[in-house]
Structure prediction request, 90 residues.
Amino acid sequence: MKHFEFEYGAGTMGANLPHNTDLFIPGETVADPPCIPEDQLEEAYLQSLRAPIGMPPLSELAFPGAKVVFVIPDRVKGGRTTHQPPEDGG
Prediction:
């Protein structure tokens, strides 16, 4: 098992995950995503569920008995490193 700390509220929450867990950290293990204009958020959200971070669609990855965890940065809860839009608003 490998220990990970995830942002949670104003702090973190730990989890012990198998060593073969795929870990995607925007800006570190994968490119930081571009800012998405507000009028495109709904479609981008749906697309990210269909095929997250350029992976095959979830419908191709899922199988009976599979265990899945979704970790979503949430600026509303004040995460320290959640993706911020550029200062120019673009």
The two ends are 41 Å apart (CA to CA). The first strand starts at residue 2 and ends at 8. DSSP finds two helices and two strands in the chain.
